[in-house]
Amino acid sequence: xxxxxxxxxxxxxxxxxxxxxxxxxxxxxxxxxxxxxxxxxxxxxxxxxxxxxxxxxxxxxxxxxxxxxxxxxxxxxxxx
Length: 80
What we know:
12% strand
């Protein structure tokens, strides 16, 4: 299963390869994308890594398709 990260369409940095710059830009723009994802992804230490990954993918899809269409996009993580 390919894993993804979430970003906004207007962020010029990659959350995969330029996370620190990406995070600073996202924060300064007021999006707080990691917090949004954390609120929607139902994860737990009691779940397997696979189940946690699936929960994150579901939350990313919900954000991209329902909460912020045209604002958010998925970025594939190479090698996942």
